[in-house]
Structure formats: structure tokens, C-alpha cells
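Hello,

Our lab assistant flagged a job as stuck in the queue for most of the afternoon. It eventually completed. Since we weren't sure the result was trustworthy after the delay, we are filing this so someone can double-check. Below is the sequence as submitted and the structure that was eventually returned. Let us know if re-running is recommended.
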Amino acid sequence: MKEIITSNIFFGISLTFIAYNVALILKKKTKLTILNPLLVSILLVIGVLLIGDIDYQNYTKGSQYISYLLTPTTVCLAVPLYENLHILKTDFKAISAGIISGLITSAMTVLPLAILFKLSHENYVSLLPKSITSAIGMVLSKQFGGIVPITIIIIILTGIFGSIISDYIFKIFKITSPVAQGIALGSSAHAMGTSKAFELGEKQGAIASLSLSVSGILTALVISFFVNLY
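-- returned structure --
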């Protein structure tokens, strides 16, 4: 019976949706920042697979189709950006400086760590696109000779970590500007950061969407420079 259920194409999709909705309920009930819905849902799925001794391949038969929604979802972020285009015109210099600073900082933090831990060039390249959305990061990783699965993992971890600590960072450094919050989340924690930004406000979400989109485009140029430094 277990084999029949787990080998069904709807098993992976159903488990993913159930796990994520349970994670959302936990977040709403507890209001704890550390209970990031994506992180909790990942742990729940892993737990079910381990406890049920379910083959990962059976899970991915259905769950892989959810990933097809990643690109169109990223494109849809342009809607709130368009609706708040006046913010870009008003704070163009600040937004441009923030995005560029975020890009350079992201790339520069990978280089010393690669040297410190003596990573291979392949692993180094895999880590460079860590702060942009998976749809773009996977392409860049493959193009420059990185390991795509590693890139996906580090992108997910970066997004989760950025979403979790953002509240504490804003509080410690007293960052109250919606524009600054949006830029920080969008340029450092990509789509997950943008989702967090929308929780803070529509303005933060719009700026995060802009930062996410522009960062993805400009990262291709930044990586092409940094990829030859190690």
C-alpha cells in the first residue's frame, strides 16, 4: 500500500503543500521569526521521508512540477513594482547605490571564505550566485562551471537566513526606512527576502521586488569579474 501511495505522482505535490501550510499555521500561531515557513516545511518533508522510509525519487516525481512555477512567479513580482514605480523615480540614487553595494558585498564575502577554507574553483563559482533567485542563479552557476545542486542549496539557505535575521538586524541598527528595508531584503535574500518584505509593507515589497530583479541582471556582470579572481 505504501509503495502505491508514494509512487503516485500526486504524493510529492500533496506532501509539499501540506507541509508548507502546516508551517504557515505554526508561524501565524507562534509569531516566532525563526519558524520560517520554508525552513519548517523543508524539515517536515525530510522528517516524513525519513520516518516513512520513503525513496526521495518517489517524492520528486510529483514535487518537481512545483519548481516549474518558480520562473513565472519571479516574473509576477513586476506587478507590485509597476504599481509603485513612483518610488523608484523618487529614490533612484539611494536605490541604485543600495543594490550595487549589496551585489559587491555578496560577491566579496564569498572570495575570502573560499580562500580560507581552500575551496575548489568549482565550489567557489557555485557559491557566487547565493543572493539571487534560483531561476537566475542556476543558469549562472551552470554557465560559469559551478555545481548547480550546491548553488540551489546555498540560495535557499541564504534566503531563509536573511528572512530570519532581518527583523533583528533592522532593530539593532534602527533601520526604519521602508526603502532601506526593501533593498536589504531583495538584494541579499532574493525571493524569500521579498516575501518577507511584503509582510512588512507594500512599499518594502515593491522595493524588494525591484532589488531582486535588478540584482539578478547585474549579478551576471559581477560574477563574470569575480569568477576569475580565484
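-- support follow-up --
The delay was a queue issue, not a problem with the job. The result is valid. The radius of gyration is 19 Å. The mean pLDDT is 85.
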